[in-house]
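Table S2 (text version). Query chain:
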Amino acid sequence: MRQSSVIPERSAQRWATVGVGATFAAAAAFVLRFNPTDRVADPTGVCMWHAMTGINGPTCGGTRMFYYLLHGDLVQAARHHLAALIAVPFLAYLGLRWVVAVWFGRELPALRLSPRVYGAYVVAFLLYSTVLRNLPWSPFSWFDIPNLTP
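Corresponding structure-token output:
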């Protein structure tokens, strides 16, 4: 009886990994199809935060960072959203750990970071993405995301 309840749960988890993978692949295909670095309007329209406030917000540059990351250009990826780029290896490892556990039944070592590290990252992310990269002087002006509206 116990094993019969485990099989559907494992199947559901496998479908969840497939769904997350398909969503990631669709996002990558979208970003590659509608290049966010050119001056051609994308189907999603302009960034509402930037349109309303005139400054970069917490997610401004994230799509361009993803685009440059897909092309292996880490310098431009860092320029467009350094704080998000720093999280990428950690999120990739968590995803890999989940997939290996669900599909192969093996546990990779867990990330053992203190809650202070997570808290410091959240504070640094918000400070960087809402304040520092909106400062008009060097070195912070390098992180300013140019408005590419046509």
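Notes on Table S2: The chain has one domain: 2-39+48-143. Residues 2-33 form the longest helix (32 residues).
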